[in-house]
What does this fold into?
Amino acid sequence: MNAPETNTVQPEAEPKAGAATMPVWLLIALLVIFFYAGLYFDARGGWFNPRLHAPYHSLAQLEQFQPKADDGGIARGRAVYEQLCAVCHGSDGAGKPGQAPPFAGAEWVITDSVGRLIRIPLQGLVGPIKVKGVEWNLAMPAMGASLSDDDLAALLTYMRKSWGNQAGVITPEMVKQVRADTASRTQPWTAAELEKIP
It folds into this structure.
């Protein structure tokens, strides 16, 4: 009889934890990548702000593209102008020959005496008036009674800030004061009367 065969192959030794090192260049490359990723996130990540949506990348960029503060209600004034004034005076403020004088560059619109300008839509205007060197002999009906102080102020401010005009804002308080001062007047103004008003 034969003796049983024995396996003479020795089992492999157990693996041992070694001191394998990461290459230094790989560590530096990862640090550089993480640094630039952080900068990119800071600039464009928005820090998960719910007010921030694509295509904006930061709150600063979002705020830059917000509509500017409406100085005196320009948008509101434009809407009132298009509804009541544009038919005669034109959407471009250039007036219409034989129908209505221009507002663009008109001394009556950009005047420092805003009380004169406010009175025209409040009670109307009749008779000859010189605008930009041209005499107009037409009548303008009163429209101020149908407008609130806010709407009339916005309308006049729009006229004073459009078509190249660079005059100041007319506030609802100014309109309210002139409306109170002229409450008893029922007749339209003439240019001669308006010129006497400081």
The mean pLDDT is 82. The first strand starts at residue 128 and ends at 131.
